[in-house]
Amino acid sequence: MKPGQAAATPETQSPDSRSQSLLQRAYVAVVGGDFAETDDPTRTRLLDAAFDQFCRMGIQRSSMEEVARRAGLSRITIYRKFDTKDALVEQVLLREFRRYFLRFLADIREADTAAERVELGFVSSLRSILGNPLIGGLIETEPTLLAGSIGADDGRMLAAVRQFVAAQLRKEQIAGNIAAELDTELTAEVMVRVSNSFLTVPSQLIDVHDDEQLAAVARQYLVPMLEPRPT
């Protein structure tokens, strides 16, 4: 959040903002530079407590009162900050998705070439999701709840990540690192769908928790996508 800027609430967000998936909102925040943690210590304390509670017990089995107790705060205090449990869950997930995009950008900065950035980005994206105790846990135990929370049921989740990846590919084009004629949107779409398949469908061949195996997949199948094919 920029200095002097009030935090957006469900009442102050624009209709377009409210209709976006959480991933889309996280992407917009990161691209717009509006990703700083809240400067409200009580709100941060509650978000941290909720994250811990949800990781331990799951979202459906956790109550607002349990989150308040874990934070060492009163029931009245948590309802002053978050009107409903859904609002609290939304803000916890939104914070994790913002961190996901920021982690991705930090990881690819370590690479020297576009090919290396694709490889590192693929590994980072899977590691950040599966290694997150909340998001990774929801994928395994409460996938329907996660899908409903982030708008994954109508393709908006994939669209948000595709938009993010396509933007990175366009930067590579502008820098002259990949061919100008590469269809960045289509390439990003395929890359994201490959990544999503590893997240949602267990593989009997690839250990998704093994960075070396994931990097090998990226080198063999994703990096070649940077070369445009004749139509």
UniProtKB/TrEMBL annotation:
InterPro entries: Homeodomain-like_sf (IPR009057), HTH-type_TetR-like_transc_reg (IPR050109), HTH_TetR (IPR001647)
Regions recorded as binding DNA: 63-82
Pfam annotation, one family: TetR_N
Region (Disordered): 1-20
Keywords: DNA-binding
Span of domain HTH tetR-type: 40-100
Keyword match DNA-binding: yes
Feature: compositional bias, Polar residues: 10-20
UniProt cross-references to PANTHER family, sorted A to Z: HTH-TYPE TRANSCRIPTIONAL REGULATOR RUTR, HTH-TYPE TRANSCRIPTIONAL REPRESSOR RV3405C
The name this protein goes by in its record: TetR/AcrR family transcriptional regulator
Protein's organism: Gordonia prachuapensis
Taxonomic lineage from the root: Bacteria, Bacillati, Actinomycetota, Actinomycetes, Mycobacteriales
